[in-house]
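Quick entry between incubations.
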Amino acid sequence: MIDSPARELFDALLDDRGHDGDRPAVTFISADGGERTYTREHLRAEVLGIAERLPRTDGLVSILVRTQEEQFLHYLACLAGGLRAAVLTPPNRKLEPTYYGRTLAAVLATIAPAYVVTDLQEVVEGIDAPTLPGIVAPRANAVTPARGAGVPRTLPDEAAFVQFSSGTTGIKKGVAVSAGAMRAQLSAYGEAIGFVREDVVVGWLPLYHDMGFVTGLHLPLLNGAHTVLLDPIDWVGAPSTYLRAVSRHGGTVGWHPNFAYAFMAKRVSDQQLDGLDLSTIRLLANCSEPVTLAAQTAFADRFAPTGLRRSAFAGCYAMAETTFAVTHLSDSMTAGLDSDGPTSGELRGRTPVVSVGRSLPGVTIAVRDERGADLPDGVVGELHVRAPFLALGYVGEPEQAGALQHDWYRTGDLGYVKRGHVFVTGRKKDVLIVAGTNVYPEDIENIVSATPGLRDGRAAAFAVFDERTQTDAVTVLAEPQDAGAEPDLLGAMRAVQAELQIGVRLHLVQPGWLIKSSSGKISRSASAQKWASSQSAPVSEAGTWPR
Amino acid sequence: MQDVIDVVRDVVGPGLGVDIGPDTPLLSTGIVDSLAVAELIERLNRVGARQLGVEDLGVDNADTPAQLLDLISP
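Done. Structure below.
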């Protein structure tokens, strides 16, 4: 018997007592619509078979495999073998190979795994790094020797696995989570949403980020429920596949970022609505970016003919550092609207503000000012969370440790509390959230500023909410080196896309147009306000140059 | 060509910051992002002689309006 936090979690997830072995545990849907279903018994046998061959280590095992099925199986196999694992993002047709290689190198350098289980050996071996961990092929037991003299990172003894938040390189952080924290999370959140064995999760979220990892794998397995998973890239190309899967499998619960609701409402044709039955859905949580009533209303209206209930929408505030959710609210479209907004503090977006819910049992959410003093109801400040399922810490990120201290997590999110409801209004730090992915504006500005013909350090990147997509779009304002310069704007946009996988709207403004703060730095907020007001003014006043 | 450019402009929406012409790179610049690709395909399929799928569009063969026109032409 293996005694470790990872095995403890495995035994909780795939306990062979109390659940019928012939019940479906997980179904994987491929791009061509093909399905493969594992019963609990089949899944357990498959996973234990893989686990037997995995080399032993106290370090972290990274899982870098192409398909969700292999990610799912190998993660569970690691747990079964008592190994602490992290699922990494595999390459896809959306990701530029050079960018992907750099990102992978940075992640591997940070988390320093003992070895990588991968069917992408050529990708791993091709990255430009002085040291590389050893490589193990899926379902194999031999380790290809590591490159260089890298030392695997030591994880906290209590760590059962490592999960990642969503973001570009530099923002994406791996956090170590204990088995106890995951079990406490699943118990508290599962109870709050009334999750039962008869529920069916249908999801397209990746397993390499916390939302898909917890809701698509841990929550259903622990409860003996059925989970149906689509590849996120397949979903982006054909969002109706998600709805068909819900209809076919009787999906009852799902989690999506805000933009996804608007995206599906817009992208599913009348023809694709034929025969859809979404009446089985009892909960649709809106997570990972600011919630808008418009996105949920668009989805509810679009799919009302399929039997979808408006009461299904649920609030959820979640992050990797708290294992997952810290709030929940049923029927958020009626029970969670604040028409007045905050009494003090900036509100990005419009009223009514949609609540992300009330704190889960055992969770305390405090709103604090810059000095750490608690703020009264209705006043915007930074959200601090105390929960019985906080992560153990960041892996290889000592400078981040301060955010997770003394049982509290300083989220960096801005929001307010009113009548027990939590409302998230934005980010304290200048972090842009684009379709659920976090990106630092300075990363964009540095790339744009490096474009020949543009002034170094004279660019400002900020978010402008896009009503069409119901998520933020990034606008960048940049000053030319001189009035005669003809900078390659498309080249700058191409560089941002290649480096960060973010499309931007890039505008030239006159030299000296951007506003500096008293410290001499470009003020993004002031420049964004000036830009917003200039957009309704005549061109000569707007300062756009050249037109 | 103008039909294709009009479709792209409509899909991308206002406020882009650059004008779209026959040779403007769309995918490699992020002007058309992964969420917009599905809409672009649907709109092109309405005006084109050939039906496209997501797998047909890549940076190498469908990055500009001119390349898109080639793809949907008979």
